Amino acid sequence: MYLAAVLREAGEEVEILDADLLELSIDETAREVCRKHPSIVGVTATTPTIKNALKVVSAVRALDSGVVTVVGGVHPTFMPEETLLSCPELDLVVIGEGEQTLLELTQALKGFQWDGRSYSAAKEFAERVSKVNGIAYRDPSNPNLIRFTPPRAFIQDLDKLPLPARDLVPFEHYKLLGKDASIGAIITSRGCPYGCTYCSSSRIGGLKFRARSVDNVLLEIQELYYKYRLRHIEIIDDIFTLNQKRAFEFAKKLKDLKLDIKWVASSRVNTISRDLLRALFSAGLTILYYGVESGSQRILNLMKKMVTLDQIRTAFRITREVGVKSCGSFILGYPGETLDEMKQTIKFACELDADYAQFCVLTPYPGTPIYDELKSKGLLLTEDWDRYTTLEPVINYEAFGYTAKQVKKMLNYAYRYFYLRPKYVLKHLKLFPIILDVVLRSWVFPKLGLDRFKGSGRSSISYSLSP
Fold first, then answer.
1. What confidence tier does 170 reach under pLDDT thresholds 50, 70, 90?
2. Which of 66, 163, 261, 345 is most buried, most CB within 10 Å of its CB?
3. Is there a contact between 146 and 138 (Cβ–Cβ < 8 Å)?
4. Which letter does DSSP use for residue 23 in this model?
5. Cα–Cα distance between 294 and 121 in angstroms, integer?
6. What is the pLDDT of residues 264-283, one digit of tens each?
7. What is the model's pLDDT at position 85?
8. pTM, rounded to two decimals
9. Torsion angle, CA of 448/450/453/459, rounded to 10 degrees?
10. What's the CA angle centered on 18, arms 362 and 226, to 5 degrees?
11. How far apart are CA 273 and CA 365, in angstroms?
12. Where are the domains of the chain?
């Protein structure tokens, strides 16, 4: 929606298709896309969705040989060469932030259409796109040789971006967990100054924290409230409270608007205080997500998490005391972690008395330091990206003294142990619909192979219709 808004502001005709939301098959998606005869088709993908994304590209090209195909997102950003070489029908990859890159591409490719894949057409295509920073494309003389343009600089002033083109998606179908109510997601900042080994945020968004102004964010919230009639919002920043002064300003100004709105956000245990939590709660904050990851200080240190167990305990305690509900995320199977340390993490989750917990198996996504380390040591069981769901072990754990099967059993045990405790069940009976939804989406449905419920990210299609 952010990309579409930039294109539309520049006069391009754009449509968005959320094929996952509409439960479309690959062929149905391709037919729906080609029905509008677009000139450019762009697909966004994460690691577990990249294979389906490329299948969509191939299916679209089979129906329209003249269309230009583009893939972007986290996975293609870190694996551009592999992505292009694994899909002959893919023309180029957008690396990093895509707003300015995609706009320049549409302008550079005005009037271009593939004509039989001739050398002259490939040469013209390469000449046009070679002037656009932040992409990878094929050499016209050798399709197996991948060319890169200079990196795209990060957008420093996020306020200059238009508000997302939400009118292009069926907004009423995006539902709040456990309730028949629509929810809107917003991004208020990019970049992360931390370097956790299992995460790629600081690499894809940069180490510098770049934030929209509070007034700009409130414009978007008011649009969601008045235009789209939304009463629930999720702020999907990596660390919303990183700049506490900004977070206080946001809380005050949002409260002053007197909107009947509830919202959730993600935080870090060393970036909050009791006073800040009170301010956010008074402004409508209902749930705060914390990335806890481990109950072992040794493992937290290996992850370069830069927090202590006592900081985590304090954060959950004051969050609970203020009245905000908490959700903790936990990683099992970090390389070198013992089975006893995994059990320690599960018990720690219970000790924190979080309202919700999400457990996952350490998944070394491309772009993360831990992926680079395990890849260099030959410790990856597979690079079948479909299996990188956070629920299936993809590491050779025998090198650490146990098996992948034992890690998977530990994951199943974690969910049972946390959610089926008598104390927890009695305390949270009123929240049962939400809890059930959390467990189903993050654990049960993916185990059953119901891909549309995988929490690893959607593949969505946007396409430019301008000639």
1. confident
2. 345
3. yes
4. T
5. 53
6. 999 999 999 999 999 999 99
7. 98
8. 0.90
9. 140
10. 105
11. 32
12. 2-154+459-464, 174-427
> Residue type for 379, please?
L
Least Cα distance to 299 among 353, 343, 246 occurs for 343
Dist CA 239 CA 247 (whole Å): 11
Q: From residue 405, how far is each of 339, 399, 416, 465 by CA, in Å?
A: 12, 14, 17, 48
Half-sphere CA count of 449, side-chain side, radius 13 A: 0
Look at the block and give the residue holding tokens 């009423």: 172
β-bridge partners, 68: 40
Structure tokens at 90: 């893919």
Pairing status of strand 189-190 against strand 262-267: unpaired
Whether 164 has a pLDDT exceeding 90, the answer reads: yes
Mutual angle of helices 309-322 and 339-352, in 10-degree steps? 30
Report pLDDT digits (tens) over 280-327.
999 999 999 999 999 999 999 999 999 999 999 999 999 999 999 999
CA distance 182 to 224: 11
- β-partners of residue 327 are 289, 356
Spatial distance between the Cα atoms of 279 and 286, rounded to a whole number of angstroms: 12
Contacts of 116 (CB under 8 A, 6+ apart): 65
The two three-digit tokens of residue 127, written as one number: 């000449």
Are 355 and 322 spatial neighbours (Cβ–Cβ below 8 Å)? no
- CB neighbours of residue 331 within 10 Å: 22
Kindly report the CATH number that applies to the domain delimited by 174-427.
Answer: 3.20.20.70
CB atoms within 10 A of CB 238: 20
